[in-house]
Specification:
Layout lengths: L1 H18 L19 E6 L2 E5 L2 E5 L5 E8 L7 E8 L5 E4 L11 E6 L6 E3 L12 E9 L4 E10 L12 E12 L2
Antiparallel strand pairs: 1-2, 1-11, 3-4, 4-5, 5-7, 6-9, 7-8, 9-10, 10-11
């Protein structure tokens, strides 16, 4: 009888420890210190780009930019700079808004290839195009660990002086995870 009680207590203890785990650990997103590494990815011109070289810079007390650098052999491993600006830090949808000042829930995007004077931006959108430029979402904010998750898609136009000779580019399937915002 004592043996049965001992087995039952061990089984109950094992179940209680298993039940405490709330989130599966993904070893691929952990750095040496055990913290989650930020992941930032998107598809540009049919090519997938992924980086953990991403950080947040605050533009004002409410708005911030997620800055990422992707290095590719096509550009001799020089960085492609991509910036995604949000008007607030809150879970929600942030559509592109061509008005100034931007609305309370808006976003914008900018991309520059290495060694190029051309800056692709949602802000360079021709005046005749009023919608469908882009959209960004913040899908999760972990206020305890101070990171955020989200997704985005954008059509980015070159500066006006280049628009007759250079086509806009499409960023699709953009996602980011564990991006620290402090």
């Amino acid at each position: 009888m004592n043996r049965l009680k001992s087995v039952a207590i061990i089984a109950l203890a094992a179940l209680s420890f298993t039940a405490c785990e709330t989130e599966a650990l993904d070893d691929h997103t952990k750095d040496v210190g055990g913290e989650y590494k930020p992941i930032f990815s998107y598809t540009l011109n049919g090519k997938n780009y992924v980086t953990d070289e991403v950080y947040v810079s605050w533009v004002s007390t409410h708005s911030f930019e997620i800055n990422s650098k992707v290095r590719d052999s096509e550009f001799n491993y020089k960085a492609i700079d991509f910036k995604l600006r949000y008007s607030a830090l809150a879970v929600g949808n942030y559509p592109w808004n061509g008005t100034f000042p931007p609305s309370e829930t808006s976003s914008s995007a900018t991309l520059q290839f290495p060694d190029s004077a051309v800056i692709y931006s949602s802000g360079n959108t021709p005046d005749v195009i009023l919608s469908g430029i882009g959209n960004a979402n913040i899908t999760k904010i972990n206020s305890e660990s101070e990171y955020l998750h989200g997704d985005f898609e954008y059509t980015l136009y070159p500066q006006e002086r280049y628009q007759e000779e250079i086509s806009p580019i499409r960023i699709s399937g953009g996602k980011f995870y564990y991006v620290p915002y402090k």
